[in-house]
Amino acid sequence: MEELINYLMRYGQLNAQQIDLIKSKARDLTVQKGTYFSEAGKTAKQVGFITEGVMRVCYYDNKGSEFTRCFMAENRFAVDYNSFLNELPCAEYVEALTDCQMIIFEKPDFHELGNTIPDWNQIITKIMSASMMRKVSEAHQMLSDDASARYLTFLEKNPGLANRIPLSVLASYIGITQSSLSRIRKNI
């Protein structure tokens, strides 16, 4: 729980009473490797903070090909925020790539925090903005670099993560085949 509180405090101030309220609304959840925290076509009913493990956001095209859009590891929120906020069906899947431990908030509890803690919505907006900026930066990098550079950038920005996820998923994220990724890794 301290990981979550420390993370929130990076984006705003919370007093002891507010921290106690946050803790009272949170609950622990284990998400097993290979299962979905949220699924495309279903409305997100909870938001989770990863305390242990790795998840990915992925989608499938109409031919069944799988694409990984981003990864989330410890000290990151996992949610389709548009679905959660606006009660719309999720556009993508959030899948556990390892066994994951999370702190989650059900939607009514999350909204109660927003109605009770004066700076809550501002803190969440700052977190979501930082996340969006990170994703935009990553997307720009992915479009401008070749496959080798994308792989090296991934390793630089995500130390140790490549050892925790399947190569097929990493290849999907980089936008190449697994055999191409194996060649790149061999040449580096």
Which key features would you list for this structure?
188 residues; Jelly Rolls; 47% helix; globular; 4-stranded antiparallel β-sheet; 8 helices; single chain; alpha+beta; 2 domains
Structure description:
Helix content is 47%, strand content 22%. The mean pLDDT is 90. The chain has helices spanning 2-9, 16-25, 81-86, 107-116, 120-144, 147-157, 167-174, 178-187; strands spanning 27-31, 36-38, 46-52, 55-60, 66-72, 76-78, 93-96, 100-106. It has two domains: 2-131, Jelly Rolls (Sandwich), CATH 2.60.120; 145-188. The strands form two sheets. The chain has a four-stranded antiparallel sheet with strand order 1-8-3-6. The chain is α+β, with helices and mostly antiparallel strands and 188 residues long. It is globular and about 55 Å long. The longest helix has 25 residues, at 120-144.
Largest sheet composition: 4 strands, antiparallel
Q: Report the uncertain regions.
A: none
Do you know the CATH topology of the largest domain?
Answer: Jelly Rolls
Overall strand count: 8
Number of continuous helical runs: 8
How many domains make up the coordinates? 2
For the residues shown, what is the average pLDDT? Answer: 90
Helix-strand sequence? HHEEEEEEHEEHHHHH
Rg over C-alpha atoms, rounded to the nearest angstrom: 17 Å
Tell the overall outline.
globular
DSSP strand content: 15-25%
Secondary-structure blueprint of this entry?
Blueprint: H1 2-9, H2 16-25, E1 27-31, E2 36-38, E3 46-52, E4 55-60, E5 66-72, E6 76-78, H3 81-86, E7 93-96, E8 100-106, H4 107-116, H5 120-144, H6 147-157, H7 167-174, H8 178-187
Antiparallel strand pairs: 1-8, 2-7, 3-6, 3-8, 4-5, 4-7
